[in-house]
Amino acid sequence: MPYAELSTVQHRLQLGAPLPFNVRNADHTLLLARGQRVDSQEQLRAILSRGALVDLTELQTPRDDILKAPRELLPQLWSHALTQLSDTLRTAKADTFRQALNDAAAPVTSLIERDPDLAIFLVLRQGASADTDYGAQRSLQTAITSLLVAQRLGWEPSEAERAFKVALTMNLSMLELQGQLARQATGPSPDQRHALQTHPMRSVRMLEAAGVTDALWTQAVLQHHENEDGSGYPSGCRDVTELASLVRRSDIYTSKLASRSTRDAISADQAGRQMFMQDPGHPMTAALVKEFGIYPPGCHVRLVSGELAVVVARGEAITAPIVACLSNARGAPLPVPLRRDTSQPGNAVACVVGEGQVGRRLPLDRLMAALVA
């Protein structure tokens, strides 16, 4: 096994905190087991003076695991990470929520870093049946979008991560209500409307009860439905933070991509055009539409050849994505999805195809070869 001197990774240690790895003597015998504590500088100096070692394989963080994982494992890693994060949101408990959120969010942000195209694919293709699942997945879609747009805008990593967590927790107090509203054929009842109007304050109270002290985070949750022209809620304020403005735009965009009982999901190209028309010239909206493009991963398209395909990656040109063909020009399903580069004239995209024209969507595992090729 490869070893390194403990002194080279001393920065990974925190006095009084559980050791994140085993510490070994110079002869490789165990000195301190993972989870034990080094309580003082004197104890640490004594350990270092013995030439203590650590196994390099134990130094790899969960983020390292994701960044180095074989590409064919990414869909599986995404499925596990999204389930963990959704469960954390749905079962939030004040005494454990803050740490559970950090633990569950870290793999998702690492997966976004590893493959942004697959992240966008999952924003467009996620679906849920249970009410709380619908609400949690809407938060996840908005959080992924917020992080990607913040990065495109050049925000510092800590600011982009904060945007991710604001979007995750903005609707913490109304996850089940979101699902109820999505499936009911009538407008909100008076009680539901009151819950909608007050959910930003209630979500803030839940975060504060869980020990969240980041004022920028809680302020953005409070303001995520406010507009700069004063037409938003709950207070109609005009002094809206950039963080809240970004999350609100991400929420509006992803809501257009989500179906409800009263309407079908809007196609990605239509959603982008609507965003531009409703918010012309704003740099956040421009960055959002540019990040997703007119043919984002996850949307279905018809090629000039007549083949039906699903976009699996953005191409070098905004009009030329990488796609996986699902059926031939005669409409017959292909036994295996065929990856095509639409920058080639014969494979060019003719139009976006709405979900209602697609029929049964191919499961993610069937698309895996095209997604990770």
Main attributes?
3 domains, 5-stranded antiparallel sheet, two-stranded antiparallel sheet, globular, 48% helix, Hypothetical protein af1432, alpha+beta, single chain, 373 residues
Explain the overall architecture:
With 373 residues, the chain is an alpha+beta fold. The protein has three domains: 3-59, no CATH class; 64-292, Hypothetical protein af1432 (Orthogonal Bundle), CATH 1.10.3210.10; 300-372, no CATH class. Helix content is 48%, strand content 11%. It has a five-stranded antiparallel beta sheet, with helices on one face. Helix 2 packs parallel to helix 4 (97-114). The mean pLDDT is 89.
Strand-residue proportion: 5-15%
Query: How many domains make up the 3D coordinates?
Result: 3
> What is the arithmetic mean of pLDDT?
89
Q: Order of strands in the sheet with the most strands? A: 8-7-6-5-9
Q: Radius of gyration from the CA trace?
A: 24 Å
Secondary structure category:
alpha+beta
Counting H and I runs of at least 4 residues, what is the number of helices?
14
- What ranges have pLDDT less than 50 throughout 5 or more consecutive residues? none
- In sequence order, what are the helices and strands, one letter per element? EEEHEHHHHHHHHHHHHEEEEEH
Secondary structure elements and pairings:
Layout: E1 3-5, E2 23-24, E3 30-32, H1 41-49, E4 53-55, H2 62-68, H3 74-90, H4 97-114, H5 116-125, H6 131-152, H7 157-169, H8 175-183, H9 190-209, H10 215-223, H11 242-257, H12 268-278, H13 283-292, E5 300-303, E6 308-313, E7 322-327, E8 333-341, E9 349-353, H14 364-372
Antiparallel strand pairs: 1-4, 2-3, 5-6, 5-9, 6-7, 7-8
